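Entry:
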Amino acid sequence: AGLVNGVAHEINTPLGACITAASHLEAEMSYQPKVKLSEKAQESSTDSKLKPIINLITTNLDNIAALVDTFKLTATHQGKEAEKTISLDEFLDKSLMQEKIRATNNSISLILDVGNDIQITTYPQILFHIVSSVIDNSFTHAFENVTHKKIIKVSAEQVSDSIEISISDNGIGMEEGTLKEIFDPFYTTKRGQGHHGLGLHITYNIIKHKLLGKVNCTSEVNEGTKTVISLPLNVTSSMQPDF
């Protein structure tokens, strides 16, 4: 119930802004100025008034669409992707191309340190989603007002019958109170900046329920953050039989 109410609130906020802006836009468009301006001047005056209103509508509608798309990911049983055995280093090197470009554009060193002999049977596209989601969280939160060299490192190792994927950054880190809540639904420190606080909550649920793994996050203020995702070597053999 709490999750549903939270989603309703998050959707209603930008939707309400759109409705208000649309009403204002309608009033502006139907208004006829008493002072007759030249056709060009009148058009220019109207455009300058309507442009920020139209931008507000577009931005908030985009926020609604993004929120709905993100919320759909909470259904961890979605999709028909089959499990597949992959070479982890080759897979991450290819699939994280966009993240590498984004890192370069933001003066961040994205380092991949994954052994070339690690094989895992899992759901590759879902795995990509969760790794990129954690990296995106570092892009968004870790390096605000940071002046030193910015680094995000992705590493992996086999530990017994599991694979541990570590994603760490040397950013601003988190206080203990924030760290305790990062996987909670709708928790975000940047709500007023277009963030809705579902990303890591969805990541947590996908790791636990779809990939049958675990996730743990540690952090120190001004030292950085490290997220460790522990996954079974073979997701199929880790599934519990249905009774």
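The radius of gyration is 23 Å.
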